[in-house]
Amino acid sequence: MKPEAERTAQALRAILEQTLTAAAKFAIFADEAKAEGHAQLAARLQTAARNEFTLAALWMRTLAEGDRPATLERLRAAADSSDGLHALYQTAVDVATREESAPLARKLTLAAAVEKNRARQFRILAKNFADDNLYRKAQERTWICGGCGHLHDGVRAPARCPLCAAPRGEFSLYCENY
Ligand SMILES: [Zn+2]
Q1: Per-residue confidence (pLDDT) for residue 35, from 0 to 100
Q2: How confident is the model at residue 68 (pLDDT cuts 50, 70, 90)?
Q3: Residue 26 CB neighbours (<10 A)
């Protein structure tokens, strides 16, 4: 990459970070506006959040030079993001503990655990994807179609839902957690 192109990429990476932050902020502000009864403001903030997410996706693809990262790389990058947040939370726990902010330190510890678990889940999903085990298990299982709720028993999720024709990617393992 030419030096000028590298400087452009640096500028784009900074814009991408700010765009993602703005998108998340606007979405949270929209929720707060809605809770305060300002539906019109909430709708505008929500639209702005969606717009920023669209731009973030555009800059992310541009930085990848038109080469969209493959699913496996995205899952690994997601795991790395959660690992990074976990490390930040752990540092913050140490600081809060030293400053004797025990209730905050406790919350930061809980949030660190959430990120650690998220990173673990992303790595399991990445491994399942790499091993072609996302829609195939060693034993017969029940799969549920995310499109229509159709239940399918088998080692593999069906290529297409026999009820709503959704593709295999809509299927996940069916579990009752109630
Ligand atoms: Zn279906």
Answers
A1: 98
A2: low
A3: 19
Domain range enclosing 91: 71-130
Dist. CA 159 → ligand 1 center (Å): 11
Distance between CA 131 and CA 133 in Å, rounded? 5
Q: Which residues contact 170 (CB under 8 A, 6 or more apart)?
A: 145, 146, 147, 161
Question: What is the whole-number distance in angstroms between the Cα of residue 69 and the centre of ligand 1?
Answer: 28
- Where residue 158 sits, what CATH number does that domain have? 2.20.28.10
Question: What is the per-residue pLDDT for 64?
Answer: 85
CA of 165 to the centre of ligand 1 (A): 6
Per the structure, the count of domains in the chain is: 3
Tell me the per-residue pLDDT of 4-30, one tens digit each, with 9 for 90 and over: 788 999 999 999 999 999 999 999 999
Distance 134 CA to ligand 1 centre (A): 18
